[in-house]
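Q: Give me the 3D complex with magnesium ion.
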Amino acid sequence: MNKKKIVVALGGNALGKNPKEQLELVKNTAKPIVDLIDAGNEVIIAHGNGPQVGMINLGMETSSKSEAKTPEMPFPECGAMSQGYIGYHLQNAIREELLNRDMNIPVATVVTQVIVNKNDPAFENPTKPIGAFYTEEEAKKLEAKKGYNIKEDAGRGYRRVVPSPMPIDVAEKETVRTLVDKGHIVITVGGGGIPVVEEGNSLVGVPAVIDKDFASEKIAEILDADYLIILTAVEKVAINFGKENEEWLEKISVEEAETYIEQGHFAPGSMLPKIQAALKFANSKEGRKALITSLEKAAYGIEGRTGTLISM
Ligand code: ADP
Ligand code: MG
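A: Here is the predicted complex, encoded as structure tokens.
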């Protein structure tokens, strides 16, 4: 295989739900990543943070209301904490796997801000549930007191929802590029990046969650990557997913992907953003390809032996 620049986006199953689980799981996660590096590729790593930022946000919120009275922690700060905590585990696991193979390559996490448009229509319609569940009464109080948007979440109670705007640019892109060009392994746009809006010379954090699939696509374009690899819980993408006539896809064109989206084959919030990110990347420049496969099958996928490949 000739040398490729690859952005790998890790899903929830690469990290687990709590620190103990994460510390174990990242050892497995590091293997397919180091396989790619071992094969001579330049690899950039992105990841989600749904459960982690939810956990941090809930912990800080509970603690601020308890006897301890810790300070209120704004949501963008919780996102920054999640990047640091996940990055710490990931960079150590990757470092260790590299050293086990006698490879001496520096690995680092960059606290990354992703710029969003303050006029993004997503701000008018918050959709992403985060943090604790509330009763209707608590929800009403919080809405009045803090101006949160609170919605009923699938019969399980009331939850705060935040907007999910599209990424426009990556604030630390030149730093990431320099490190990648120097041969460092970089973990970036964690959790989709800390969402910020530009106000003059300031970058101001906003309570929102950028989809990690879209943020990964953005950094892949910025770094002029050859591949965007989205590692998730399924080996391939299906049409008629979960139905009798389910069909697993191997290779699809941008046009086919668009048709399947229109036909409603992909669940919003899970597979849909992956397909949208994959087709955006494949369509952005001749030769760029996107692969969606599972963490376990990543090595086979990269050899072209499994997964769903989206290309022009
Ligand atoms: P991640 O944490 O990796 O982003 P998600 O749970 O958000 O993972 O999305 C992956 C999930 O999407 C799969 O585990 C699968 O259950 C679901 N899914 C929805 N529609 C499809 C489809 N058409 N083909 C395959 N998987 C699908
Ligand atoms: Mg997801």
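A quick observation: The chain has a mean pLDDT of 95.
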